[in-house]
Specification:
Blueprint lengths: L2 H14 L1 H13 L8 H11 L6 H12 L11 H14 L13 H10 L5 H10 L4 H11 L10 H12 L3 H13 L13 H9 L4 H8 L13 H24 L20 H8 L20 H4 L6 H8 L7 H13 L8 H18 L10 H11 L3 H16 L1
Helix pairs in contact: 1-2, 2-3, 2-19, 3-19, 3-20, 4-6, 5-6, 7-8, 9-10, 13-17, 14-16, 17-18, 19-20
Length: 407
Amino acid sequence: MSETEQNKNDHIIQEIDFTVRSSDAFYDAVDMEDFRDKDAETIYRCLIDEIRLIPFGDYLKRYIFRQMGLTGDFRAVDLKIYQDAIKLAFAENNTPKSFEETSAKLSALAKNWLTQGSVSRSVVFLLGFGLNMRIEDVSEFLTKALQEQDFNFKDPMENLCWYCYRMGYKYPKFQQLKSRYEETKKVGHGTVYLDKTVGLRSAAGSICDDDALIDFLAGFVEPPGKKPVSLTARETFLDLYTKSKTIIAGYFNADGTEHGNRPGQREWTAQNITEGDVEKVLMSGIPMDPNGNLVKISSSSLGKHFGGKRLSRQHLSEVLAGETRVDRFDLITLEFFLYSQDVRYAEDNKNRLFAFTDDANRILLECGMGELYVANPYECFLLMCMVSDCPLATFADVWELSYAEET
């Protein structure tokens, strides 16, 4: 094989494997000779020039491409081929075009799924039936393509989908079981929502017949006005948040920071560190608008890469009040901050990266979320910062560069 042919094949493999492509970009950046002197600039240019935000449609195209046994570049395949493949698979697997009544044609819906940046979780579950996916495939779409939680075992419908995928049931069987569940008298009192995700998943995994499934789901009685949330994720967030506030309080005490309008406090503690204080420390590279808020993300050249990832005081307040669910990026960012300030790795960048990666992966898996994903631009960004001499300063500098370039 000639060098030109090999390079072409390597490119095709990278286009198919998002992780390989992003890993190559990551190592190319951090292995540069002048990375330690120009870490922020190098990371910024890598994010702008090399790391591509992968839309949901590309994940779906790649999946169908692989299932069809095609070769070459999956992006070069005509969109209609993918649409026809979805229509054929849905027909073969007796799957409707939507969980709900709709006048839209399946071809039109398929085109939307293949071209959109993101879709709802329900679309992923429908595709799971329509394309006869394995549980692992659906999980990958949830955690990597949507960047969301894996199967939510506190949601009866997601439990039901998971069970059907595991048992190899087609959509008609799912619909039959769904009807049985809806007609079954609920016997729970909402206490199931106090259980941790890992326990519920274990309980669901022990179910091997339909009657046992219906009995299990009958215990899911959602408290009025509340949506099921991950207790594990919330507890983990609060733990990381308290540790972060403790570190910030220590720094404020060390540099003699005044308490401002908080009279009577002689010393900073985690308890009197506010969401605004956390925002100032973690998001220091982002400029403020005249109202004292972080300048909108659309003003950043990395806005598409980092949208929804900022720990603003408004977002922190909503999470603490239970108005917004804890997501993977909340956990990863706080974990990043803790490791950026860990003196044990002050001169050991490589082991800091390894320790952060291992700990973050452990936390994410415990919370029912996928491991760190280098193909996600924001997560790749944090990993590159972790290799620098001063991760938090580099983190701030890259944010600052992204706003300066757009100004």
